[in-house]
Amino acid sequence: MKKVSVIIPMYNSQSFIKECMQSVVRQSYPNWEMIVVDDGSSDKSVEICSKLSRADGRIRIVCQKHLGVSAARNRGIEEAAGEFLLFLDSDDEMHPLLIEKFVYLAEKYHAELVMCQCRKVNTYELERGLEKTDTNAGRLKGKVGNGRETEEWFHVRYARQMAGIGGKMIRKSAVGELRFDEGLGNGEDTLFLYHLSGSKIRTVYLYREWYYYRIHPGNTVNSFQTKNNMGYFECSRTIRDKEYRMGRIRYALTWERMFVIQIESSYTEAKKVKDLNKCQRLREIANKETRFLLFKKLEIFHKLMFWSCFYFFPLYVLLRKILIKLWEE
What pTM was estimated for this model as a whole? Predict the structure, then answer.
């Protein structure tokens, strides 16, 4: 039976770490190890983890000074003894059959990466027990992608699903020397998966919402802070530029669209809090972007949204409201 190393980076997570860890303990698949990497927490997170660790010898706690989530994940990779790696954020949870089915699919299709869909939920929904509503757990529906198909999934078909590390199990041998970029303020998991998908791996996509991404005030604030980090765009820009240099214009355009949308989003947040310095810096980035060849290749709609955002903001707000309404319908 293959061992799975579940890596949980943790920083001041006392509110949810117990439930997160218990979702691993409840797994139907028994051969796992849980590596909780404490990234210098100052609350009671370690105390909570230590209590659970004493009750289950499969749980290990590794402590380090506060270096960031990428460093914590990298430490987890170094510590892992399993043949598979599964990353779980400290405020998230997963379905009790997830590891069992992931290992089954990885072995059946000789896959390096197995992924499922993520479901955004609140604490109330998690407390109700989402797995009880999943009545078709025994019938697996998924898709297998080989080599270049995995790349196409990452850039186009399943770009949103493959942007984050949650809900993914990776064969450790496929990771090799690849690590999360500790110098990147955001998007480190997207860049990690970009490099992984570029190594022509075989992937299985399980059509089950078995990774539960918890929505709560804490990660809403973190999301806002991330958008106000000038490093927020580095991942998209890095991927875009590399694909452009390789002459893969279709993929480069995907990340050019992502890049301009991220700039718009960050500018909108800066406008809300009246951060004039941030607005000015973003306008400078926007002006430079309009001279880039790939920007000129974007569809007229994307260019209209971009121009209105920086040069006629009331029109941009109106267009966004229309789009949101159409999406909801």
Answer: 0.90
